[in-house]
Amino acid sequence: MNYRLLLLMGLLSTIAHAQPVTFSVSFPATQSKTALDGRVLLILAKTDKTEPRSQVSDAVETAQIFGVDVDGLKPGQATIVDAGAFGYPKRSLKDIATGDYYVQAVLHKYETFKRKDGHTVKLPMDRGEGQNWRTAPGNLFSKPQKISIKPGANQAVTISLNQVNPPIAEPKDTKFIKHIRIQSKRLTEFWGRPMYLGAHVLLPAGFDEHPDAHYPLCLFHGHFPDDFSGFSETPPPANMDTTDYIDRFHLYGYKKIVAQEAYDFYKKWTSKDFPRMLIVEIQHANPYYDDSYAVNSENLGPYGDAIMYELLPEIEKQFRGIGQGWARFTYGGSTGGWEALAAQVFYPDAFNGCFAACPDPIAFDAYTVFNLYKDKNAYYAEGPFRRTPRPGQRNYLGQVKCTVEETNHRELALGTHSRSGDQFDIWEAVYSPVGSDGYPKRIWNKLTGDIDPTVAEYWREHYDLLHILRRDWKILGPKVTGKIHIYCGDMDNYYLNNAVYLMEDFLKSVQNPSASSEVAYGDRAEHCWNGDPTQPNYISRLRYNTMYIDKILKRIETSAPKNADLKSWRY
């Protein structure tokens, strides 16, 4: 092959890459007569087994996604998604190979908030879905269409956002499950518009028949619950389909197992000897995430105080809670595990025990796989001659699913300014101070991973639970001794056990007073291991509401004040 031919081939290749396909995305006036703000998301998938928007993930099989912010987009006005749009996993449209694709677009709508702190920001208000851009009511989307990207062609694809996600029905009360929703004065003042908190309350058996009984309360923290789950008054049908397969557990028929556990919980809940109490799952979705992490935050507002001083007292008033710290307990896993421990630390007198399973990082010097205070980069371990990517997720054998960089770049494609509605962005939104633009200060450069040490120091002083316990033990120690229980698999998928090891070292060694705590690990157990070594995790993860009962009762018996009500709720 001669030099001129090689040069010509290189030139043709350059031209092909210089003229990638572009997409023109718009919505008709039938969907909105007014201009809209938000983020246009364009998804390319290689299969049509499900809609492209449902195929975006951290898995290696993920669909490709690109994102573009829009402000005041008018009906019929086109947003152009071209080579300049940021994408994941491929950075640019010019990197997309030729071939056939299924394409779909979504407009994730933003609303304008004029906050008490003087900042005006545009954010996706939760609309009852738990901050999910795929299903958020009112979000516009297109029907999937098949396209063929051809080599060297100057293609322009037109996409119409002519579909809209429907509203989500409110859950209905039953004999045992009640729902409550209040407008929060504190949050309304912060956000400059009406803001609400909700809860699903599981009532004890005999609630109506014992009007003089008052009950202990268990606050079950976790991600956004659309209703109280894991409780069913009817057993699963004998002929229920069991062909569903859960790859994580290598198990067929998991839906039936879940249904059976829900019915078994109902039978325990209504049995003669089961203790009578209230179990509460709270709804505190917000413009950044499906829950607030139940603490006060510069960017999210005073959710901690709103929950503790507005929502819980109202629940205890309506449903005859005892309403004292000795009769309140909190538990949860993952996000809920962090929240359970944080509630015990930040409101030490308000709870008599926390059970934190697989908690999000509770020590930031083990922030998943790196030290937020000493490392310079979140994405790479750096030496003088090489950079090694940091793993983001693994399975129980240690096989890596994705890197920290890949997860963060997926979030960056989904939303700028911490608006992806996903994990690293919500940590940033909760823990960071407010930036000059009104959005959370970046803990690290989202593109490069370079850590900002000044923001890290703010995180340390305000939300690093190990640091806060160590710093304030003289005050907190007497209030939390005997109350802290932590459980984590030693092969947690997100490396959350690393921070638990550090917390365990502190709790074992601290004196005056001693912590009298409990920390346990599941051998080769993955995320959501919650402390029961006698059951496989696919079972124990369904039993949060029963597995800590014995420890709660023992704690009440040994710590309740004199003349406390230990009888009215033990019928």
UniProtKB/TrEMBL annotation:
InterPro entries: AB_hydrolase_fold, Mycobacterial_A85_antigen
Signal peptide: 1-18
Highest taxon in the source lineage: Bacteria
Keywords noted in UniProt: Signal
PANTHER family per the UniProt record, alphabetical: ENTEROCHELIN ESTERASE-RELATED (PTHR48098), IRON(III) ENTEROBACTIN ESTERASE (PTHR48098:SF3)
Protein name, entry field: Esterase
Biological source species: Spirosoma aureum
